[in-house]
Amino acid sequence: MTTAPPTCDFTEVVLRTERLILRPWTEADIDAIAAACQDPLIQSYVPVPVPYEREHAEHYVRESSPRGRAAGTDVVFGVFLAATGEPVAAVGLHRIAGLGSACGGEGEIGYWTAPGARGRGYMTEAVRGVCRWAFAELGLARVEWRAVAGNTASWRVVEKAGFVREGTLRAFLVHRGVRKDAWIGSLLRAEWGLEGTE
User: Fold this and answer.
1) What is the pTM of this model?
2) What pLDDT shows up at residue 23?
3) Which long-range contacts (CB under 8 A, 24 or more apart) does 39-42 make?
4) Is residue 10 part of a domain?
5) 105 is in which domain, residue-wise?
């Protein structure tokens, strides 16, 4: 007997951590997204349009992000300081699959941090919050991480969250029209200490 998958509409999902609120982006956040995505480091590693225009942030907030949430395949969160409401980052769980599977599903974590918010542990805290939700609420068995090989800042974030780096995928990613090696890592539900829990 198979179990029906959980509801796949994640439109209203909001998460909270010690210092952060993770919620859907809104119209009021468009300028902050557009400003953050001017950062050369984000453009070097994240597949955002270059040059990044305000219209790209509008599409992200109004169309692509809500579409993924409603479909249950991609859940992108704006990351905000709970104390002030300041936007500091974005984190998403992408390519969600296998919900309701007896073996557990999987998804891929992705993120960027605004330049002025780096070095304070916000992204590791946000990644932990998303993984906690993915394992405890969605029943995922594995959360995967991939990044352009050499992106040590991205690796440090997930390493602090408990991810294990598994190796290098040769010429796996196409970024700005060039094939690049990718690092791959993962965090398993059993490693999170939730094995056997509801």
Assistant:
1) 0.91
2) 98
3) 39/114, 39/115, 41/115, 41/153, 42/112
4) no
5) 15-192
